[in-house]
Each structure stands twice: as C-alpha cells, then as structure tokens.
Amino acid sequence: SVQKTIDRYKMHMKEPGSNKRAAVESIQHWKSETARLANKIEVLEAHKRKLMGEGIEPCSTEELRELEAQLEKSLSNVRATKQKMLLDHISVLKEQERMALRENAVLREKCKVEPLLQLTIPEGINTSDQASPNVEVETELIIGRPGTSDSR
C-alpha cells in the first residue's frame, strides 16, 4: 500500500505539465460557464423589464401580442391562486362558525338545565311599572360653600 502511494507520487512528479494543463482547462471551462450565465442573466433581466412595461417601444406588434398573452396568463394564475386562498379562508371561517354554533347550543342547554335564580325583592318596594303619579320632589340649587345659607 505504501509502495503504491510512492509510485503514484513519482508518476505525478514525472508529468508536471499534466496538472497545470488540467487546471488551465478547468479555468477555461469556468470562464465560459460564467460568460454563458452572465448572458442568460442579461436576457432574463431584459425579459423582466419588458414584463414590467419598460423598453417595449422597439418591440414588434407580434412581440407585444405575445407579451400581452403572457401577462394575461400570469394574471389568470394570480387570480386563481387568490381565489383558492380566499375559498380556503372562507371554509376555515365556516368551520369556526359551526364550532361556535355548537358551543352556543351547548351553553343554551346548560342554561335551561340549571334552575333559575329567584330574585328576592324586599317588602315595601313597588315593583310595578306604574309609578305614583303624584310624587313631588323639591330641588334647590345653592351656590357657594356648603353650610352657608345664601341661596339664590
């Protein structure tokens, strides 16, 4: 095992240009990949600007139609997503309403089962809605400190 490692080391040392060549090829590959991705980003940003309505003056009628169709499709997707979210929210609210109605029914039943508390009224208090029509009340307004008898 140690001998194999030494042999590999010697073989790599005999070919000093092979590692350099591989590194140069790798660098060239990454440079071309970077340039390709930069170009793709530029194209995507230009498309985004067109979708935002910027720089569409030089577009042909056909390009504008395609852009409009794309925007309408996007808008339709947004509306469908919004509608689904609203319907989901409505179903959650309806379930909460059903739960509240059940709880309300349980509480009503509970109130019917429990005996009603009897209100005790002390004697001498008139509980009828008809008040005595000949009740006179005397009011007096005194301005000044309490205890002085100057009334106006």
Automatic annotation (TrEMBL):
Q: Name one GO cellular component term.
A: nucleus
Q: Mind giving the lineage of the organism this protein is from? A: Eukaryota, Viridiplantae, Streptophyta, Embryophyta, Tracheophyta
K-box domain mapped to chain residues: 27-119
Q: Per its UniProt entry, which superkingdom is the organism in? A: Eukaryota
GO molecular function ontology, one term from the record = DNA-binding transcription factor activity
The name of this protein is MADS-box transcription factor 50
